[in-house]
């Protein structure tokens, strides 16, 4: 803000009380959206101001609202529903698609076919590298695949809860299985995997639902590394299923079947 500009500093929001009012509105909106953890972050700014003014009436209301937010976090009400899935489009931008499956996102992109003609637009629904030399120059291509948040090992120590693993993130990963002879999948001893890590310009969630990708990294997993990674994931799934509260026998059975099935089939 420029203090020399007329009217900038005379608005009703450009004051301490105006700031508190805007923050309280933000807290209410976060609460309505199910982002209860952010309610706490907003009130961390408000509470010192109220304490300085000894405004115990509003402090009482604020702590009451915080109690409701913390109760909602404990009960996991709406928290999982408030976290959206994310997809990468054309490997140039990443967008939040709500709680939507990839197939439904692809159907949504059919809008461009209606605008420019069904034969002029084609959606590529896998994450395999595209050979641009084989593409028709007279057609528009949209490549889309699902991505998941990516964290280094040291980050996982501070990202414990479901909310922390899906909020304020700018690195995502998708995997592409392949074999040396060109097939996507093969026997255990010949199965490779390409992990692609994308870094976005801003962290999700953001004001915009689509954010540009500014960096891309790739690394290849050998068959033994792929097997180790699969075992590690199954171990984590088994741990989560056995420690779930309340216990869910059906979920445990599904995880056990998935763990045993791959070994038996191989």
From TrEMBL:
Which Gene3D superfamilies has this protein been placed in? 1.20.58.740, 1.25.40.410
Question: Keywords in UniProt for this one?
Answer: Guanine-nucleotide releasing factor
**Occurrences of domain DOCKER (ranges):** 1-266
- The scientific name of the source species is Cinclus mexicanus (American dipper)
Protein name from the UniProt record: DOCK8 protein
* PANTHER family assigned: DEDICATOR OF CYTOKINESIS DOCK (PTHR23317), DEDICATOR OF CYTOKINESIS PROTEIN 8 (PTHR23317:SF74)
Gene Ontology biological process:
positive regulation of establishment of T cell polarity; positive regulation of T cell migration; small GTPase-mediated signal transduction
Under Gene Ontology molecular function, one entry of this record is: guanyl-nucleotide exchange factor activity
For this record, an example GO cellular component is:
cell leading edge
What family does the Swiss-Prot or TrEMBL record give for this protein?
Belongs to the DOCK family.
